[in-house]
Give the backbone structure.
Amino acid sequence: AFDKAIAPKITEKQVDVVLEEKRQLVRKSGVLEFVPHHFSLDEIGGLENLKEWLIKRSKVFSKAAAEFGLQPPKGVLMTGISGCGKSLGVQAIAAHWQLPLLRLDLNLVYAGILGSPEVTLDRALRIAEAMEPCVLWIDEIEKGVSRSPSGSSGGVQARIFSRFLTWMQEKEGLIFIGATANEIELLAPEFLRKGRFDEIFFVDLPTEIERVAIFRVHIQKRKHDPKEFNLMEL
């Protein structure tokens, strides 16, 4: 990747060349997706608690933070009503911290087309570790990483749950987990205890103030001045 990037000279454009090589490596895994992100926190209406949390920790992945002895955050779980911005929140984390965003598709892990689910998960996690520092996005985590009733499918899911739990506890790389869940009650208590995730955020229906902020964002995206509109009426 660097051989391609440095000819004839190094500029900011070469960063895209290296990132494209990373995308190709991730794509070959079959279960990971390299997700581009081109927006800022200002383009999100609401989610103020999450924004404040991210801003306070903006420098935790820096060399200075490591030398000072700060432990990088492990991850967050975003739960709440479907369609209210949980996935957008995870993408905002990677965008604000300027980290690569990898999306793990647990449905493909269980499909078995790339080998046994356990082996496929291990391979995906090793690739994520090779990409550190990065954000690992797991959407609707309760459907793939939870304790299921006994049975053939339940046995596989229980083993995946155990492997993932162990990896979360023992991983040493700078891999921040951004997980979303619509039904948090399906997740086992040991998965939610303090230490697995740094924080759990509940994403509710937007308040009136948040709806105004959301309208302002979308009007600006359409290249209009929000001041020309009655946002409260909208």
About this structure: Residues 38 and 121 are 28 Å apart (CA to CA). The mean pLDDT is 85. The two ends are 49 Å apart (CA to CA). The chain has ten helices and six strands.
